[in-house]
Amino acid sequence: MLSEILSKSPVGKVFPDLLVGTESSDDAAVYRINDTQAIVATTDFFMPIVDDPYDFGRIAATNAISDIYAMGAKPFLALALLGMPVGKIPVETIQRIVAGGHSVCDAVGIPIGGGHSIDSPEPIYGLVVLGLVHPDKVKRNNRARAGDVLILGKPLGVGIMSAALKKNELRKKAYQQMLETTTQLNTPGVALADMPGVHALTDVTGFGLLGHLLEICRGSLLKAEISFEQLPILSAARHLLEQGFATGASDRNWASCRHEVTLPAGVPGWHKKLLTDPQTSGGLLVACESASVPAVLEVFKSEGFKYATQIGRLTAGAPSVTVT
Questions:
Q1: Which of 117, 132, 152, 131 has its CA nearest to residue 45?
Q2: CA 247 to CA 167: how far, in whole Å?
Q3: Considering only Cβ atoms within 10 Å of each terminal Cβ, which end of the chain, N or C, has fewer?
């Protein structure tokens, strides 16, 4: 639906300094301001996926800032976006949401310099985030090369766990596992920007692993092969998947990409659900040359990303994904 909407957008004036716009479905816009600096701009907001207001604020802020890191940039300023059903939620609850967002920005070392608020039927919170990067170090999602190795920085399964939480079927230990991954900032993106062997970068969020990998494939005119057995999966999510938990967004994601995906014959249904599971504050997806794999994995390891692993490879061919 989003692709259909954007296809009818009028063709605007060409801006030579707009290095990244909407053309490749990338994570953020990038505008060059001089020979050594480009501004990276993004926004993201959503309704609560957890009940605790402070945790909701933390997750939403981390998710928004991730798009800056996915372009290889360093964030420097945020603005808050707040929509609340006035008179229906206690002021103290709203304060906790905002405090959660501030805690993440404090950890990054950036201010929330303002924002916008509205009276809305459902709670909404998120950020506009600005970052800086050298124009030559921008990591786009459409610069992958044939032969590149695919590395995923975080485990999959957040959507499944949020679905179980809504039905009061998520245990405390599993909730902590979910919270740990959704509030882990994708800081390796900054170091990856300095590595010439890293050719493309994105983060896996609402369109699931298949959706965001296909954006790399389409933009780079390549096909991907990934191994299901190599995918990092949150342990609680795998158990819940086998019990039938999934989000409605998973089915919509599959409907939008199924013609470009090949699955093994007789694959269990939960495999497909995981591959299309929408991730909130998901991991970085890296396309890099084979020689850079050890260095890339070391960057993730040094910054506390214990699940980071190689999941597949890109080769010449029509944009598509084959799962083995």
A1: 117
A2: 12
A3: N
